[in-house]
Amino acid sequence: MIHQSAIIHPSSIIEEGAIIHDNVHIGPFCFIGAQVEIGARTLLKSHIVINGITQIGEDNQIYQFASLGEVNQDLKYAKESTRIEIGHYNQIRESVTIHRGTIQGKKVTKIGNSNLFMINVHIAHDCIIGDHCVMANNVTLGGHVRVDNHTIIGGMTAIHQFCIIGAHVMIGGCSGVVQDIPPFIIAQGNHATPFGLNIEGLKRRGFSRSSVHAIRDAYKILYRSNKTVESAKAALKALAAEHPIINEFVDFLIRSQRGIIR
């Protein structure tokens, strides 16, 4: 179904069954598969391939040579019915690739809202990306990576499969991430190590002074006290009783499977 207000260049191919909502603009030489749904006011520049079971929300901008919803690169994949879901207000720049999920994951690769993926970003199968994230040129995410809200990842960074990147994290360019990065932290290097807190980012996002001080205390517990992760977790729980924002650390440590960067 193609809404009558959609604008589609005659050189583009829209397979029967695709759903194109109102005021979508599809530029030249695009291919849209039969199981694709594109939300209102989304713009496809040109030379874009969207395939598989792919749901794209409203007001997204997708640039030339992006490939969304293609078969993933997991050798175990056997043409099972898996998908990708993309939210609203995302900018997906040139040559970005986002692959469909696997049955070994949750069958879905999921992108939130208001993200910016710069040129040549690769998001592998089963990744879950939150809202308001920025990934600079040539960032590569392995399968099953989770990136929480308001995270910034510098160019040329590679993140190992199954890693979790906490909210408000900033990762410097050319880093190699092989373990989980707790929220609010600045990390860089190969392998990535912590370099303090993303204080400027917290200020820009309106965190109160008391919350920032509590996050500083939590960082000291986790990284400056020589505690084991388990003993640090107990100390963080006590701090969270007074400052609920510290539950971000506690919940993250519970979720972590690969261990945290130290």
From TrEMBL:
Enzyme's top EC category: transferase
Species assigned in the record: Candidatus Blochmanniella camponoti
Q: InterPro entries, per this entry?
A: Acetyltransf_C (IPR029098), Acetyltransf_C_sf (IPR037157), Hexapep (IPR001451), Hexapep_transf_CS (IPR018357), Lipid_A_LpxA (IPR010137), Trimer_LpxA-like_sf (IPR011004)
Q: State the family named in the UniProt similarity comment for this chain.
A: Belongs to the transferase hexapeptide repeat family. LpxA subfamily.
Question: What range(s) does the UDP N-acetylglucosamine O-acyltransferase C-terminal domain occupy?
Answer: 180-261
Protein's GO biological process: lipid A biosynthetic process
Query: What catalytic activity does the UniProt entry give for this protein?
Result: a (3R)-hydroxyacyl-[ACP] + UDP-N-acetyl-alpha-D-glucosamine = a UDP-3-O-[(3R)-3-hydroxyacyl]-N-acetyl-alpha-D-glucosamine + holo-[ACP]
Task: Extract the GO molecular function terms from the UniProt entry.
Answer: acyl-[acyl-carrier-protein]-UDP-N-acetylglucosamine O-acyltransferase activity
Q: What is this protein called?
A: Acyl-[acyl-carrier-protein]--UDP-N-acetylglucosamine O-acyltransferase
The record's GO CC annotations read: cytoplasm; membrane
Q: In which pathway does it act?
A: Glycolipid biosynthesis; lipid IV(A) biosynthesis; lipid IV(A) from (3R)-3-hydroxytetradecanoyl-[acyl-carrier-protein] and UDP-N-acetyl-alpha-D-glucosamine: step 1/6
Q: What is its EC number?
A: 2.3.1.129
Give the location in the cell: Cytoplasm
Q: How does it assemble?
A: Homotrimer.
Name the gene for this chain.
Answer: lpxA
Query: What's its job?
Result: Involved in the biosynthesis of lipid A, a phosphorylated glycolipid that anchors the lipopolysaccharide to the outer membrane of the cell.
Predominant localisation class: cytoplasm
Keywords annotated in UniProt? Acyltransferase, Cytoplasm, Lipid A biosynthesis, Lipid biosynthesis, Lipid metabolism, Repeat, Transferase
